[in-house]
Amino acid sequence: MRAHAERSYRRVVAGRHRDAARGAVLLGVLVLVAACSSTGAEEQATEEADAKTLVSAAHAAGVAPGLTVEVAESLYGTSASQICDVLKDGVSSAESMLLSGNPSGRREKLVTTDAVTYERLVVKTYCPDELSTYDDLVADIDATKTTG
User: Is the pTM of this model over 0.90?
Assistant: First the structure.
């Protein structure tokens, strides 16, 4: 009889510990999910605010008339890293030649004033510290005006 009572007590105690462990794991998962969600929400708010700024500036400048907030968010995220990282790390001579239009001596690229203006707005919105680098980079480009 005593052995049976001892086993029952062990089951109750072990069951309580198991329930406490499950509760602790569940609580940990919930805290982790909440932490990730709040960071995601902050990033999403920043992404949307930057995209709205870019769209507004582009439309005011008369470039990229079809640009929407959703498209800008998907293209640039929170940092426009595909542009800002290159400017921050320095543009190589090969990249500069590609941008300026005629790296191979063959067919020249057409670089429009709208493209230069739009890209400047992207830099101004997402990495304003690199604006002077961008301006120096495009200073020698003979951009072509586009007409309706």
Answer: no
